[in-house]
Design brief:
The complex is a heterodimer. By secondary structure, chain A is of the alpha+beta class. The two termini of chain A are about 50 Å apart. The chains are: A alpha+beta, B mainly beta.
Chain lengths: ~750, ~150
């Protein structure tokens, strides 16, 4: 495994840690005060810092370090995680993610942003309330910590309950005297490994000297005479005394990556402070309290503390005693039993830990794709086999038939399980949206609350990946255009804090994602005017509300008056619509003036299989996606009406629906087929319009594996993709929307690139 | 660098095939496999030389009638016809030919320039002519037959 692979693993882990960090912070934001949540957040930042240190990613390390310090204050109850504090932390989490991405992809990060946050974080660590404006430099801020100033700055939501907290014992080192700065003494004796690993004592000393006033004494007693000296040995040791407001932690962090390769003893010299404080003060020093408590379960039991496992062991002891009357043997047996019980307790604890940690594996997506392809092949082969057996059946071969049925069941099960491997909850995408909302709310000065529901709803990974972009754009729109400014909302009698609700749920084999805001809704007058200006509609066009709302999906349509930072980047709702359609999905909008808009997206659960109706058209087998079909019907002569020169309509329950001959539109035949000879599929298309697609016959319904046509051929107008049927032949999957559009007079464009020359 | 140029400079192996009474060859490095003819599913709006698509172990493979593509009369595929599965740029294409005849090892000296009587169609694909044991074999560059321009997004 080379360095790059290790680095890649580190970045993958970072992604998980960042997700953990964000979800932890959001939980805290929702009022969760479970110490484990705080610990999880702390751990996430800590492990990112550790890994980043190993790879020499200095920017990442220094930011993570400041972040970690502040989180440690929360962990040790020095800092109350108020909304304002969490706001800074969430922003810090964003920057940490940016820094990680920059470290991986080589991009750069807005430095002023991270610098501001570092200042804010440091201010928080020193007990200041987050400053709204330019924060004061940290040294000047330190003395202020003792004053009850933070209470004054708190928003009214926080009542007096907050007040006592800044005075918790954790603040002792800053509390007793305003100007008290602790002196830390360090005994530092490097081992030769320290130098062997490329560390340099001088650099460490220099780092310590940056913390505050320092005096150093170098102990050269161990230095041998020149002829006996081994150049690879370490002979010097140092005694350092440094006066620093960073305290022991600050000094220790200097030695963080060297501490295994030296003898290190760091102590705070207590002067004016009561001596008990030492004990208290060590608390925040302990690596991670969580780890200790884990040890208590198994480790302590395995050691000499039988009390923990007494109840388990008691039975064994009693059994052993009744079994043998000889005292000596009994006691030995009891001892054995005890030991066994202790061992099993320990191993059980280990197993628990292992189970918690190792229930997932990381798999390259390519491998899963290959597996899915192979299973698709298996399904097809199985179907081919069944078909040929049925064709050659000579009766009395029930065992073959039974075997085939079992095979069919098995392949279907394998297919389902393989598909499930790719299914993932939409949670990561939704979490990214939380960040988008925060950023846009910040830029626009709006106050927004994002509510997510159903984030554990599972969808195919490829769908999730392609969902992020359109969702981001829609969220941006919802906050930027949808929600009103807080003052305006208040004036309208609404909650000044706007709400954006993101919901995911399964509905009849599809996933439905809804994005609702409680803003102003679509300004139909404005949209209409804009459409008229852009020649999209005639000035006197009579449009329904829905039709007007749908105008925003037109290319080049933007309701923003000015091109702001957020909109006008050339990405309009038309692009959103197109990317949703590319996923085989639909998007619709409903809006109520003054109450907000709801965007509803309906997407397939996977891009790999599709429920289709297999039909015959002009001797060819085609597959029509089942989701598009409303009903099928056998036309009767009395229901068919001619319209104009060549159009025909079919009357269905007193409404007239245009007939579309699929074979004609796809150029499979040159004349219109007789509708009486075929079957009509009533389909609903994107624009909401209905069409009756004429096909020659319906073969049946079946789940088909979608195969790309573009991979080796090219996009074919009217055809969405291909699939492979039971007989091994390729069948084409109809692009219903394109066919319906073609029937409206838009021709299916002939852009076959293979025809480019010749 | 195109396959043909590589062949010219390094002297590689070529696969020769027959269409009607003419022989052609392509760089062996672009040939993935050779298989028998199976009925193809016709594609709507396809150029006439695209016979349709077949299933190549789960991959949708377009089949091109080489005879028609090279400006000759359309092939009437039978079970004796073969499909040369070739890599052309990022895509894999099946070439329908009458038969595969030979594997040739050639050096640049074996290849004579295309005669200047050729009209535009022949000039477009012919990269040279080989004279081997009294046979004349035309070297084809697949890249120029099927330029892999990205299809325009609809």
């Amino acid at each position: 495994m080379d360095m790059n692979e290790i680095k890649e693993i580190f970045f993958q882990e970072c992604e998980e840690q960042l997700a953990e960090l964000e979800s932890g912070l959001l939980k805290l934001n929702d009022g969760d005060r479970d110490p484990e949540t705080v610990n999880a957040v702390f751990r996430a930042v800590h492990s990112i810092k550790g890994g980043a240190g190993a790879f020499g990613l200095d920017d990442l390390v220094s930011f993570a370090h400041v972040f970690e310090t502040t989180l440690d204050c929360v962990r040790s109850n020095k800092l109350e995680p108020t909304q304002d504090v969490l706001k800074v932390m969430l922003k810090s989490a964003d920057v940490l993610a940016d820094l990680t991405n920059a470290a991986r992809d080589g991009g750069s990060v807005d430095e002023s942003r991270s610098r501001t946050l570092i200042r804010e974080l440091e201010a928080l660590a020193h007990g200041e309330a987050p400053a709204a404006a330019e924060p004061a430099p940290k040294l000047a801020a330190a003395p202020k910590a003792a004053a009850p100033a933070p209470v004054v700055e708190q928003p009214p939501v926080n009542d007096e309950g907050f007040q006592p907290i800044p005075f918790s014992f954790g603040d002792f080192d800053e509390e007793p005297a305003d100007h008290y700065v602790p002196t830390v003494q360090v005994a530092f004796k490097p081992k030769k490994d320290l130098y062997a690993k490329g560390n340099e004592a001088v650099l460490l000393l220099r780092d310590v000297s940056r913390l505050g006033e320092m005096s150093v004494y170098c102990d050269m007693d161990a230095l041998p005479t020149l002829d006996k000296m081994n150049p690879e040995e370490a002979y010097f040791s140092w005694k350092i005394s440094v006066t620093t407001d960073k305290g022991e932690d600050g000094v220790r962090s200097v030695f963080e990556f060297a501490e295994w390769d030296c003898d290190l003893d760091i102590q705070t010299i207590e002067e004016d402070v009561v001596s008990e404080a030492t004990g208290d003060e060590e608390l925040p020093m302990q690596p991670v309290p969580f780890d200790l408590s884990m040890l208590d379960d198994g480790g302590a039991a395995a050691a000499d503390e039988p009390a923990v496992i007494e109840s388990d062991a008691a039975a064994a002891v009693a059994a052993a005693e009744t079994a043998t009357k000889v005292a000596q043997v009994a006691s030995r047996a009891a001892e054995n039993a005890k030991a066994a019980a202790a061992a099993s307790a320990a191993s059980a604890a280990q197993a628990n830990q292992a189970a918690a940690a190792g229930q997932t594996i990381r798999v390259d997506l390519d491998r899963v794709d290959r597996l899915i392809n192979l299973v698709g092949e298996l399904v097809i082969n199985q179907a081919m086999l069944s078909q040929s057996v049925v064709e050659n059946d000579t009766n009395g071969t029930s065992s073959i038939n039974m075997g085939l049925e079992e095979l069919q069941q098995l392949t279907r099960e394998i297919q389902d399980s393989v598909m499930a491997i790719r299914a993932q909850p939409v949670k990561p995408v939704f979490q990214r949206m939380a960040r988008t909302v925060r950023e846009i709310a910040d830029i626009t000065g709006k106050s927004v609350r994002l509510i997510t529901e159903g984030e554990n709803t599972e969808v195919d990974k490829t769908v999730i990946d392609k969902l992020a972009e359109p969702l981001t754009h829609m969220i941006r729109n919802a906050v930027d255009h949808g929600l009103e400014m807080p003052e305006k909302r208040e004036a309208l009698g609404k909650n000044p804090e706007g709400t954006v609700r993101l919901t995911a749920k399964h509905r009849s084999g599809r996933i439905v994602i809804e994005l609702a805001d409680d803003g102003a809704g679509i300004n139909r007058e404005k949209v209409r005017q804009k459409a008229i200006d852009n020649d999209l509609i005639a000035a006197d066009a009579n449009l329904s509300d829905e039709e007007i709302d749908n105008l925003i999906f037109h290319a080049g349509f933007s309701t923003a008056d000015k091109v702001s930072d957020l909109s006008g980047r050339g990405v309009g709702m038309d692009v959103v619509k197109r990317s949703i359609q590319a996923l085989g999905g639909r998007i619709s909008i409903s809006s109520k003036p003054g109450q907000g808009s709801v965007f509803t997206m309906s997407l397939p659960l996977t891009l790999a299989v599709l429920d289709g109706m297999v039909v015959t058209v002009a001797g060819q087998t085609l597959v029509v996606p089942l989701t598009a079909i409303v009903e099928t019907l056998q036309p009767e002569a009395s229901a068919i009406h001619s319209f104009g020169a060549s159009q025909r309509l079919i009357s269905i329950r007193n409404s007239f629906c245009p007939l579309v001959d699929v074979g004609r539109i796809l150029n499979f035949r040159n004349t219109q087929a007789n509708p009486m000879d075929g079957v009509a599929l009533l389909v609903e298309s994107e624009g909401g319009g209905q069409r009756a697609l004429m096909v020659d016959a319906i073969q049946g319904q079946r789940q088909v594996v979608i195969k790309s046509l573009e991979a080796n051929y090219t996009h074919v107008p009217g055809i969405a993709a291909a699939t492979i049927l039971g007989d091994g032949r390729v069948a084409l999957i109809l692009d219903v929307d394109a066919v319906v559009a073609a029937s409206r007079g838009q021709s299916l464009k002939q852009d076959i690139s293979l025809a480019a020359t010749g | 660098m195109t396959n043909a140029v590589k062949t010219l400079t390094h002297g590689r192996e070529l696969i020769a095939f027959r269409i009607g009474d003419q022989e052609f060859c392509v760089n062996i490095m672009s040939v993935r496999e050779i298989r028998g003819w199976t009925q193809a599913t016709p594609m709507p709006h396809a150029p006439s030389y695209v016979l349709g698509v077949i299933n190549l172990r789960g991959v949708v493979l377009p089949i091109v009638d080489m005879s028609l593509r090279l400006g000759m009369k359309p092939a009437e595929p039978t079970v004796r016809h073969v499909i040369i599965v070739a890599q052309v740029g990022p895509k894999v294409v099946g070439l329908l030919v009458d038969a595969v005849s030979d594997i040739l090892t050639v050096t640049p000296e074996n290849i004579q320039p295309t005669p200047d009587i050729a009209n535009e169609v022949e000039k477009a694909y012919a990269r040279g002519i080989l004279a081997i044991e009294g046979r004349m074999i035309c070297l084809i560059e697949l890249d120029s037959l099927f330029p892999h321009t990205e299809s325009e997004a609809a």
